[in-house]
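forwarding from the other thread:

> can someone predict this with magnesium ion?

sure thing
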Amino acid sequence: RRAEFTKIKDTAAVTKDGHRITLLMNAGLEFDIEIMNETGAEGIGLFRTEFQFMVSEDLPRLKRQTELYERIMDGAGDRPVTFRTLDLGGDKILPYMEMEREENPALGWRAIRMGLDRPALLRMQIRALLTAARGRELRIMFPMVASIDEFRQARDMVDIECSWARRRGRPLPSLLRVGAMIECPSLLWHLDALLPLVDFASVGTNDLTQYLFAADRTNPRMNDRYDPLSPPMLRALASIQKAAEESGTPVSVCGEIAGRPLEAFVLVALGFNRLSMPPAGLGQVKRMILSCDREAAGRAITKMMGSSNGSLRNEILSLARKLNV
Ligand code: PEP
Ligand code: MG
């Protein structure tokens, strides 16, 4: 297997019927650059900036943040990197930062909610990103956006930091793209308002599954209870893909399922053409894509979504076998 994946490392991921799929990886540490080179990932679709905070003994301030982002962008070269702003709270806590105990941390004061209420840290992070990116492209993405007003406010913060830098004559990124994660179900019914506001979106299926099924992703008892390969989830994903295509907004999927061949097969069938995944998934997903007839798969999956079955895993498995994927 390993040897086979190495062989296709630099092969573009194109389906048998000619659809090009961009394969990116999820990352969070400097070390990941090496992994990117080894796996042939085309960029980083999700850089989890909270990792630096979680492995650090104290709060990384402006300089340390800037240095990390610079090294990541230097290492990535021409390959795009999407930096997600701090996704703290919930199950991600920092030993050196005082955080209130919450009854329901997954539903609590976390991620962009913290960033908007206590903007000092988010602004410092945006400043670090802008400084690190001077003269090159910068992609910033906000986590856990639940309403489009939150996205507007977060984007305003980027604009404020840009003006701050401009007034001081500091060089800005050559191109700035600001996006949102789609991982709160509320956004599913406001995509028509959200998509024109964002430069890109990325579907966080880990949290989207958690919130759609009201099932704690950290509780092992829930592991096999809710299947992402089920009509509710597939309809949710299909509606995002369709809305994004109609509005001309680039959209990717960056949850763990993007790295599992059968789930990735479904994502490709639904029309997603950018997948960001744990690096271990890249070889097997690429192999799947090279053997996949996207349009035939798309027609079959669309039909299946009308099913009254709770899970479609077995049907999808048979379909993949039938299509020789
Ligand atoms: C997600 O929720 O799917 C995601 C990619 O983000 P995280 O796993 O960091 O919450
Ligand atoms: Mg998430």
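Residues 143, 183, 204, 206-207 surround magnesium ion (ligand 2) (CB under 6 Å). thats all i got for now
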